[in-house]
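Q: Predict the bound structure with iron/sulfur cluster.
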Amino acid sequence: MVDAFLASGQNYFDTAWTYMDGESDSVQSRKCLEVAEEFGKKVIVMEPVKGGMLANVPEEASEILAQVEDNLSDFVPLSKAEDMALKKAARVILDKTAIPCTGCSYCVSGCPQRVWIPKYFKLYNEYAAKPDDKWKVQPEYKKMTEGRGAAKDCIGCGACESVCPQHLPIIEHLKKVSEALD
Ligand code: SF4
Ligand code: SF4
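A: Predicted complex:
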């Protein structure tokens, strides 16, 4: 991501910036911000709650986040302890989410196979969190795929990956979905 930003030659950097994106190996927001600062680029910040994903975090992450006081009213910089707590919470969320898709659906309209990518990823995350619930998840998946491409129908064209703001390896993830649910 840093390389793509530098190669683009843009005079601004638009990023999905949350404490989670900062720690993500694919989004690399923290590294990109450092580069933007170094080169004096303007920054446009988007998706502050990651498509709603950060409104409902795992309990373990919630407990860590309780250490970070709301500072929206005065925008004081985070203390070192708060910054460390955010990084730790981000790691927990990333570790506990099999596929960190935000459900933005940018990838859907360009898919020639009409694969319902975010829906399948959401369902797969439920399955990955509780594999014993496969009996519940699989019929739901079958229903979702009626009249659309299933995960197994992906032809690997890459149209979806080129527009995913999270830079997810969608094709690889769909293979996992297919192995589990097709
Ligand atoms: S790579 Fe697969 S899921 Fe992505 S747009 Fe192409 S066919 Fe659809
Ligand atoms: S574009 Fe990426 S983050 Fe958005 S729904 Fe598709 S896979 Fe998920």
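A: The radius of gyration is 18 Å.
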